[in-house]
Known about the structure:
By secondary structure, chain A is of the alpha+beta class. Chain A has helices spanning 2-7, 96-107, 137-156, 158-165, 175-190, 196-212, 215-227, 230-233, 253-264, 271-278, 285-296, 299-313, 322-342, 360-365, 393-396, 407-418, 432-437, 444-453, 455-469, 506-517, 520-533, 540-552, 562-570, and strands at residues 74-75, 78-79, 88-89, 92-93, 234-235, 240-241, 248-250, 356-358, 377-379, 483-484, 487-491, 496-498, 502-504, 577-580. In chain A, 45% of the residues lie in helices and 7% in strands.
Amino acid sequence: MRRLLVALPAAFFACSGSIDGDGAGRSAQNPDNVPVVRDKDGKVLPNPPGAGVSMGGPGGATGTPNMPGVTGPSGPSGPTAPASMAAVSGLHRLSVREYDNVLRDLLGDSTRPSAGVMPDDRRMPFDNDYTVQEPSNALVVGLNIVAREAVDRLMTDVPRRDMVVGCKPAAATDATCFRSFITRVGRLAFRRSLLPAEIMKFESLAALGTEGGDFYLGVKLALNAFLQNGNLVYRVERGTPVAGNAGLFKLVGTEVASRMSFFLWGSMPDDALLSVAEKGDLNSADGVRTAALRLLKDPRAQALTDSFHALWMGYETLTVGGTLAAAARAETAALMGRVIFTERLPWRDLFTFGEAFVNDTLARQYAMPLPGQATGKWAVPTDAKRRGLLGQLSFLTIGGSVADTSPTLRGKAIRNKLLCQEVPPPPVMVDVAEFAKKNPTDCKDVRYAAHRADPGCAACHGLMDPIGFGLENFDMQGRSRKTEPGKPTCEIKGAGEVMGMGAFSGPAELGSLLAKSGELEPCLVKQIYTFASGRSQLDANDSMVIDQMTKSIQDKKATLRLDDLMVEVVSSEAFRHRREEVAQ
Amino acid sequence: MSRVPVITRRTLLRGVGSIAVALPPLEIMLRPRNSGAAPGTPPRRFAMSWAGVALAADRHGVDEGVTPKATGLGWDAPRSLKPLSDMGILPYISVVSGLMIPWAVDPPFPGGKGLLVHFNTMGPQLSGTRGGAGAQGTSSPKGSTVDQLVADAISGGTANRQLAYRLQAYGYVGGNGPQSYRMDKGSLSKIEPISSPRVAYEALFSTFKAPSTTPADIARDAFLLRQGKSVLDIVSGDLASLKNKLGAADQIRVQKHADEVRRLELGLDKVAPVGAACKMFPNPGADPARETGYAYAGEDMRGDVYANLIAMAFACDLTRVASYMLTHEKCWMGLPPGFPRKVPDIHQMSHESSGAEFADAVGYLIKQWGKVLKKLKDVPENDGSNVLDHTAAVMVFEAGHGKDSEAGGKDNAHSTENMCILVGGGASGKLKKGSHVAATGKHPAQALITVMNAMGMPQTALGEVTGNIPQLLT
């Protein structure tokens, strides 16, 4: 809290609670009260100050001291982090999302069976923070079940089984075929070639198949052993020690391949990437860049990008359900795909893009002509205020209370999530619930104005509420509206303002305002770094890397493409190294 | 307690390692009670439950929901306790009311908390440790929670040190988190609860097998057992190899994982120490469907399965401790279709619903807890008592009702004044049953210290909190 107190004007702390019944410090989409980052005790780690209205630089490193050797080599896109700035990294367990992706890529199993059986991953906001992962009975038994059932499904699907096995056994005792299967699948499963001793261990399972008179019994047991194996379940990184730099390790090629594939695909490396790694081509920035460009052309990169944004912005789990939720997520995924991958537009165009991908369900919600399709079709939204990501149902469910929109929480969400700014919670001893129930028949703008009339409230609510009011013409289910629910005489003006940026009305103008501000890209850099490192507790070294990356894009924000940024991350020296974690 | 199994048909093999085998429906035929089972004193058991709710909605009194109006014995069930009355277990329930967790910006009090309520009362209550400083401080336990301390004392040689379940399904808005923490050699571990009935069923029954009787079955079972062991041997061996190659922090992670695999592996060889009242129930099958957001995830069915599992595990002496978390902290759980409410989730109801509606929501959670107690009551012991007579089951709530420490209101759900703990069962005659103890100003951890005393533990402290509430004891 101390850093924040230094950063913000005194008036910022004089504000009182929101009038949403449960405080601006809490929201359904952000249940842990975690805007972006918490420490181990759950304490929020605020961002240090930035310029103007910005309360914290997204990098969170302004003012950090220089360290020797932080100026790295210049890549095509500017300076990249050197090996000495490698992040601390430990053993990452595959998240539920990643494990399901591995089942898909290893066995061709697209059922995504793990959710609901394996424990949920904690969102910090990303699901891949290894520091909060803890092995448990729930995990090991869930894994056992998921693995066993995935193998059972494979065994009943003979063409798929044969593809995985890769050879036709001449007999139940066909050791050559079994060894070929073990060696090939084991390399994909462990993301490295198996050691001779490992091959022998897995081959021993063939004997049980022989005893049972069934070659595929051995296959089944081997796959079960692969799918529950620590070498698959965890991303194992050892590397080789870097001379003269204690605790720093250079990753071997296959470890770099795994880092790349889980960052760019959320899944295991394919055979081609492992081959490139084994040839030593991932030891150089150019080699990594070439490999990354190939990965980014794969549909898995598009799915990963969708997951990244959903986790970051908090719409991964929607408060709406059923077909509407599915349509909303499909719309957002389609926007990601078209802007980032198909048209290869600047990332900020996500916020200004003019068309929406709607099926009949979503078109009804948006009061648009029905496309007559269950899958969806691109169309220009009827409501001119609805453009870009901020006008989508996915995003509009964020930052409200259950019953209705909350201008305060929506404004807070924009600042927290999109601008990486910290807004403090309501001060103590202000009865938030009391505000929520005051003058319930008044129109919302009148009630909030009364709230902001309190000079103690005005400062920080002035940073949040006007943003939310600019989105008021859209309800929590993404529908356009002109009056408040249940109050037909309360006309919604929809006039908003982002202090320091300007006035707007509706998601389209807000998206445009934010895009032009240049404030979105630094936040993107911080989030992409956090996601890539799989660790939400950022340290001073992380902050310096983020600062450096932010500076490197300073002059090209308007044209910055997400795929370019991802390539830049993976091709840095730091990405090919790790710093040993200190045991606690 | 000596219990000798007589089972006429082979039982579960689906849990054997990672092998799927088509099996007939489960069935264990047990010899009649007292036939061969040596008489003895039934063991004491313990169950700890957490619900991330307050005791009353904003602007509604706590006595509308949980706190009986009269103290002592013979009180009428308030609205939230009606389900316990309906199940016929109210005489087994004691209510400890008037509890309070002191708070401050930087809590100087033993077991005190910071200003926020949500995510701030589990540590003080379940481990007696104080919460984080400042308005943002959170208070997850910083020491072993009560269930772990009790497990240390009473789990003995049971196959499972404890069971850890959570009623609220995976995937809800609001995320994840355990209620059980274990401090071991200076390292605090979270005990992740299982939130899937079918995982819970398999986890328990993988240690619950009976010997086959026909030569063919014996041979087949032996072959299946070898298969399962072969798979887990490789998994275990590879974890051991992996551990040796890693840094110290990663070694700890791998060792924890390996310990759990080992537990699974050991289960393959176990034969259930079943007895007269030890009965299995059919595999519950697939879990109820789960949608997004606040959608109800079939918690009624889930609760039935967990209640059955806990009761069976206690009856069969597969464990003596159950950590049964009902909801996350700040419970965003959905309620069954048709449940009267203005908003879809329980948390928001505490701020927007009527007193009666919210009391019923709290009552819904109490009912899920009560299902366990009812099952325990229905399981007879050899001495004519029932398992509930020898159990202490506590239900702890995230908040009480009264002064709002974070927002300053006087009559709110965001309060750690007027907190209650429900205590069910008799702990082998050590706990007073059916009593309402008004323990005004006492710390909730003191109620839990008292329950530990009833379990035969000489504890005078839980974390930083000392003292007990003698009126709870016989």
